[in-house]
Amino acid sequence: MKSKVYFSKEVSSAALVRIFEALERNLKGNVAVKISTGEPGGHNYLKPELIKDLVNKLNGTIVECNTAYRGKRFSSQDHWQAIKDHGFLDIAPCDIMDEEEDIVIPIDGGKHLQGKNYVGSHLKNYDSMLMLSHFKGHAMGGFGGALKNMSIGVASSHGKAWIHSVGATTDPDEMWHHVDNQDGFLESMAEADKAVIDYFKEENMAYINVLNNISIDCDCDSNPHDPEMQDIGILASLDPVAIDQASYDMIINSKDSGKESLVKRMEELHAIHTVEEASNLGLGNREYEIINID
Question: Model-level pTM?
Fold first, then answer.
């Protein structure tokens, strides 16, 4: 059976709430809303005024982890300042999940990460999670959507190094000596995704991708390239594979001539391979149907 992917052309706070409601998924208990808080200097991340109503509807906590590169979100002190400056503390409780320490959650299967995914210790404080992702390009992964947000995004600083280095090291400085295995990196992200889904269980997760401010660069970039495409809309699904496949397809099949640089980046970095491997690991279905909610 094809997975359902809901779509709204409208990118607004109200549309974000409507598309989540279309999923008919009751996220229970303490709800973590995983976003990118955005590297200072960047400006394409999901804005607080866009996500506020949905986060509050869920009585959710905005969660993040520190980065593995030495920018303005590498230390918790700097990261908290970025969260404050970007306005997220004004709309909801926020949590840097690896502020204190890591925990290891198991990976059942896979071939790179030795059965271990390193995440922030605060993950254990949550019962369910919404992956609220800004879909855009990425200098290493090709694109960032639900699968990247769930793997690199949920991983602690050490866990990010573990994934990027394809299981060679948890040292963020050492990892840069182990970033030449591109497909291994993409497959490692999929393995980390499996760990998170197994931890929370499928029924306690939901996924939204917002396709606006679509730059070839990630929100982790302090000086991202300006968007060259027009906004596309919002996608939502209970299937992380289907939502990223649909988002990718919307870029590839767009008639917007501004897509060319992003398409080139995704193809050069074999970005779709993360989706392929996530499907191979049983995390979802690459076959989907689009359901318009507008």
Answer: 0.97
